[in-house]
Amino acid sequence: MSVRERLRGALSHLVPQRPARRVILAGLVFAPLAIAAREARADPVFPGAGALGLTPPAGMSVSRRFAGFEHPAGASIILVEMPPEAWDQINGRFTPEALAATGFRVKGGAEPLPVAGGEGFVLRGTQPANGLTYAKWVAVVRGAPGTGLVTVQVPEKAARQVPAASVEAALRTIAFRAKASLTDQVAALPYTVGDMAGYRPTAVFAGNSLLLTEGPKDVDPEREQPVIVVAPSLGQAPVPAGAEVAVARRLFAAQKDFADVNVTDEARSSRGEAVVVRLRGTGTDTKSGRALGVTQTMVFDGQRYLRVLGFADAGRPDALDRADRVAASVAMR
C-alpha cells in the first residue's frame, strides 16, 4: 500500500461511525479539571501493538474493532500510523478548507501540539453524521517511528461523560514507542487468518487492516503481485437484512484506482448466523493499465462486517482461488 493510499484511508476515518447501542450506567460526575489532572498522570496506552498511543479519558477502553479507544456513550479515539514521509503530504491537506469536504467544520486554525520526542498540530471543530453532531479533534503528529493521525469524536449527548477538558488532556499525552514486529501486530488484530494459502503478511494498517501479498516485494505500486486486503468495518451500523448483496456490489464497484470494474460471478451463502457474499470480477488499474482479476468476500454479522478483497493479474485465476481460501479462514476474535 502506497503512502497516498494510506493517506486516503486515514481520511476515511474522519467520518464518525454510528455508535454501538449500549446501556450507559449513571455514575459520579467529577470536575473536568480533576479528571484531566488524574488522566495526565497515567502512562500512555498503545492499542494493537502499535507505536502510537496516549492516555485515554476516563471511561474509555481499548477498542476491539480498530486501533484506538471507545466509550459506551459513543465517543471514540482512532489512531492511524503512517510512514514518516506522510507528514509532508498531510501538512498540505489537513487545512480547514480541505477538511470541509469531509463535513468537518473547523473552528479557528491549526494549533501546535506538544509531543514528546516529536511535534504536531491539532484542529478542533464539529461534524454532523448519522443524525448526530460530534465535537471533533484531529491531531497530526510525528516522531521517530513515523507519522500519526489521532481523531477524537464525541457526540453532543456524551459531552458530560467525555468532557472537552479530558480530551485536551489526553491529546497532550500522545507518545510514540518503538514499532512492534509485524508478527506481534498481526497477533493483535481483531481477527485470525487460519489459512494464508501461499500469501504472506506485509503490513498492518490502522490496527485492524491486514495486507498480504505473494512475491518478493513489500511495496508494489504497479500491482504486479497478487494482493489481499482484510478489513473489518469501523463502525457498528448494521446492514438491513436482504441488502447485503447490494452493499457488496456497491463497494466492489467503488474501488479506488480501478476502472471498468465488472462483476462476473456472484454467490450468497451463510456462515452460522452471518451472511456471506462473494463476488468475482475484472477491472483495470488506472495507473498501470494492467488488466486485473478481482475477488471480494464480505461477511455480514450483526452490527459489523468483514471485507476480504483480493486482486491479481488477469492471467492468475489461481491467485484469486487462494484469496478465497484466505477469506474463508478469517474469523473474528
Brief overview, please?
This protein is α+β, with helices and mostly antiparallel strands. The chain has helices at 3-12, 32-40, 86-93, 96-99, 164-171, 182-187, 244-253, 317-329; strands at residues 52-53, 61-62, 68-70, 76-82, 105-106, 111-112, 119-129, 132-143, 146-155, 175-176, 191-193, 200-205, 209-213, 227-232, 258-271, 274-285, 291-301, 304-313, 330-332.
Order of helices and strands: HHEEEEHHEEEEEHEHEEEEHEEEEHE
Distance from first to last alpha carbon: 25 Å
Which stretches are low in confidence, meaning pLDDT under 50 for 5 or more residues running? 19-40
Could you say which overall geometry the principal axes of the C-alpha atoms support?
A: globular
What is the mean predicted local confidence, pLDDT?
86
- Strand segment count: 19
Estimate the helix proportion, in percent: 10-25%
Largest sheet: 8 strands, antiparallel
Structural class: alpha+beta
